[in-house]
Design a protein that fits this description.
Length: about 525
């Protein structure tokens, strides 16, 4: 194993030792291994912000000394947030499949709604296999870059092509895109260019107008530069494995600080309202500062957008909304007054999670003075990290699978970390956490009582572990995980290891509860007991 890999592994082992919820995994031959890791904060953050992610492999090109891949997302301020990273010395299809399976396991098996990737075949295959229900798109800036490279001769001789290509890609409707694309090809004599044909054929994977029905969180923050910017300026082409961890730690520290600063800024500044609208006041008190400004701009634009009622049918009213003097760029809004629901052809809300000016114009016309709760995505609010945070992803897994036990183990640890991190600040969160952990403890006790401790047969149909496979293997059969909690097998000789791990975990939980108890203003206390 190279010194560089050893260096990285040394750090990962230390971090796991200090915090068992720090997760890492290794695959393959040590000389060409892949290493994945995700820290406790990232695992916790995924439960709040794991709806849309970017998997970035731009550092995996031959231009970089360390093939470094990252999973990132967006926090409630729209800042990039880390959901794990990997060193991919082996970049085969099997390696990417392993990486996604391992990552999915580490974040408790809950797939994101959407994922943005580089246009790379192996990555796409891995996403399709491991996250079949996740909407996949190519990073459009990667496509732009590729187009610039392929059409370098045109970009040199035709300075306008870049702007025209960008305008075409940002079309507001499919018809507009098709028309502009056709004109672009004609203007630059690219009608017979096979590569451009393949780019066009893949349009549903990268042209925004085709993907607006899915949440990607775009236009809402610093992560909208088109690609992962989390490690920009920290990881460079010259970064080696020896200094990777230092650069990684610097990036994590800086972004954590930026989030704290944004939290502080949101909490300590009074939103500057531009109108007497109760809706603006409501949004100002709920959204983070950055997202409120996005909303405020949309609300402000309703002053110039008029909503004209077209027809009513079956309790639903159709409106045409257009900016003054721009009737040709109108949007159709469907409004259901009984449910106070509206949808707009621009699909801004579906795509970004912030309501559009067109629906707001209709609300204004119909005297809807406050924003219906469904248009206030919690992930963009000041309280994004409170309440409902302890969603039990493990509960979505089959409860009798070997993975579910390990995931439950991991989640228990994760929950404790979260409770500690929250400082039991919110009593609702605390209570939810306590109830969930108590429930988990009962299940653990049930398992023990049914004979797992004695390593006995698990033939009992009522035993939650009864149908476990002989041994829990890693996502890929040839994989090797060094995370002790993962190496535990379910049946056979290692049953006692599982139970010991769980018992250690419970002890850990109780220590944490003591800690929480000191901090909880209501003096709540809970002790987990396995009888
Ligand atoms: Zn709209």
């Amino acid at each position: 194993m190279s010194d560089g890999v050893q260096h990285v592994l040394g750090y990962l082992k230390l971090m796991h030792f200090e915090n068992p919820n720090f997760y890492y995994a290794i695959r393959g031959d040590p000389s060409a291994s892949n290493v994945f890791w995700i820290d406790a904060a990232s695992r916790s953050n995924y439960t709040y912000f794991g709806d849309t992610i970017v998997f970035d492999t731009s550092y995996c090109s031959s231009d970089y000394k360390v093939p470094f891949a990252t999973f990132t997302g967006l926090n409630h301020h729209g800042q990039p947030i880390l959901f794990g990273c990997a060193v991919m010395l082996d970049q085969s299809e099997a390696s990417y499949i392993w990486l996604f399976q391992t990552w999915l396991h580490a974040i408790s098996g809950k797939s994101p709604i959407s994922i943005t990737i580089e246009p790379a075949r192996f990555v796409q295959t891995a996403v399709s296999q491991v996250l079949p229900n996740t909407r996949l798109r190519y990073c459009k800036w990667s496509v732009f870059k590729e187009v610039q490279t392929r059409l370098a001769h045109l970009y040199e001789s035709q300075p306008n092509i870049d702007a025209e290509f960008g305008k075409c890609v940002e079309s507001e409707s499919i018809e507009e895109f098709e028309s502009r694309w056709g004109m672009l090809l004609e203007q630059y004599y690219l009608m017979d260019d096979e590569w451009m044909r393949s780019v066009y054929d893949a349009r549903r994977m990268w042209v925004p107008v085709y993907m607006r029905d899915t949440f990607f969180g775009d236009h809402c923050g610093e992560g909208n530069k088109g690609r992962n910017i989390y490690f920009d300026g920290f990881i460079t082409a010259e970064t080696t494995l020896q200094v990777l961890i230092e650069d990684y730690k610097k990036a994590v520290g800086i972004w954590h600080e930026k989030e704290l600063r944004a939290d502080h800024d949101t909490s300590n500044t009074i939103p500057l309202l531009k109108t007497p609208s109760p809706m603006e006041k409501q949004a100002g008190s709920v959204y983070t500062k950055k997202i409120f400004m996005k909303f405020q701009e949309e609300l402000f634009q309703t002053l110039a957008n008029t909503a004209t009622e077209l027809e009513e049918s079956g309790g639903v009213t159709l409106f045409r909304v257009a900016k003054f003097g721009e009737d040709h760029r109108d949007r159709i809004v469907t409004y259901n007054p009984i449910e106070a629901k509206a949808t707009c052809g621009c699909q801004k809300f579906e795509f970004s999670g912030v309501i559009c000016r067109h629906i707001l114009a209709v609300f204004r016309a119909k005297n809807v003075l406050t924003l219906p709760s469904e248009y206030l995505l919690k992930r963009w609010t000041r309280n994004a990290k409170s309440g409902g945070s302890l969603d039990k992803h493990a509960a979505e897994e089959p409860t009798n699978s070997p993975e579910s036990v390990t995931i439950r183990c991991d989640n228990l640890q994760q929950d404790v970390v979260k409770v500690g991190e929250e400082d039991a600040k919110y009593i609702q969160v605390y209570n939810v956490a306590m109830n969930a952990l108590e429930e988990a403890a009962k299940k653990v006790a049930a398992v023990k009582n049914q004979g797992v401790a004695q390593g006995g047969s698990l033939a009992n149909g009522e035993n939650p572990l009864a149908s476990c496979q002989p041994a829990m293997t890693l996502p890929m059969g040839d994989s090797k995980l060094e995370n002790p909690s993962i190496q535990t097998t379910i049946n056979g000789e290692k049953n006692h290891e599982l139970l010991e791990n769980i018992q250690k975990l419970v002890m850990n939980l109780n220590e944490k509860f003591d800690n929480c108890d000191r901090k909880c203003v209501h003096g709540h206390r809970l002790q987990i007991i396995i009888s």
